[in-house]
Amino acid sequence: MARPSRRRxxxxxxxxxxxxxxxxxxxxxxxxxxxxxxxxxxxxxxxxRPDEAAWPDQGAMVTAQDGPVAFATxxxxxxxxxxxxxxxxxxxxxxxxxxNVEAARAAGLQVGAVLVFDPCVPADGQSANFxxxxxxxxxxxxxxxxxxxxxxxxxxxxxxxxIQSELMTLVNQIEAHAGQPVILxxxxxxxxxYGIAARIxxxxxxxRDWFEPDxxxxxxxxxxxxxxxxxEAAEExxxxxxxxxxxxxxDLIAAAREAAxxxxxxxxRFAVGAALRFADGSVVTGTNIENASYGLALxxxxxxxxxxxxxxxxxxxxxxxxxxxxxMPITPCGRCRQVLNELAQLGGTDPEVLCVGPDTVQRVKLxxxxxxxxxxxxxx
Length: 380
Description:
Layout: H1 11-47, E1 58-62, H2 71-76, E2 79-88, E3 92-93, H3 97-106, E4 110-116, H4 123-133, E5 144-147, H5 160-178, E6 183-186, H6 188-194, H7 196-199, E7 203-207, E8 222-229, E9 238-243, H8 249-260, E10 273-278, E11 283-287, H9 300-310, E12 317-323, H10 334-347, E13 352-356, E14 361-365, H11 366-369
Parallel strand pairs: 1-2, 2-4, 4-5, 5-6, 6-7, 7-8, 12-13
Antiparallel strand pairs: 1-9, 2-3, 8-9, 10-11, 10-12, 13-14
Helix pairs in contact: 4-5, 9-10
């Protein structure tokens, strides 16, 4: 019986098979390199934090979920402050908060309290829950409100307007208790959904591993640079924020120009922006708001001062930047000089005023713009 003939693979088929095998080996090597690189990056990320020489004011955020924390070790690692979770919503309390406050202070750390906002419940219950955990204490850092959850999981629909209204109520209640402006700790998801950074003028605490965050649309005061820092101070990874000390005069001018984009000036067409920088690094901005009666218009500097004082600021004014559309550097009007002087005298400062033009900046002390000023000291 004749055997069926066995044909050898053609040269083209052998070449294709050889090429496929070589491609598979190369692909395998690339995948392996990617896995090794990813593992290395993950390992490096666990211990990465900003350079202390460039960013000296660093700290940690601590919650009960982090377990026991050796605050003295945190201090030794370069931390200067600790933000401690105190409460969440209207019912949840962090029972480790009092002990953490005592231990952190004993280690020489400055301490601040964090309230985690619950979009599903009214502000009154959340503020009441917070104040039962956090006493009035002038030595504490400004309280922080953590904005993480959105209302998508609430049992009943909560509109964006309602979220903003309740949050503003909560801000006012916490500030009345603490006697100082709050810090808004805004997650990327919350900001994307509600745009709070542009709607509530408070210092921002943003988060992004390794790279500086920009989703707030304006300068930040605190940045969580590593959300899972592995340290000898705790078994669990810690959030590692640090404060911004890098707000330059150019940044302040940019903040004033950004504020001017929100100007309501349909009558003069002269949009003015102002930015105030304080000793703690915080920045408050304002823009001019005109009125059909003309005489009731509000200047940018006055709006900025009102916003700062509404947030509990009573002094510490170091620098003012004022921008406008004219060909020459713009200076505060007489009324604004008086308003700025009131805030400056409360803290005993003589702020530098940056009068900004298209291409030049004139620097002048407020006392030179308003010599022999009348202020709070004149009434004593």
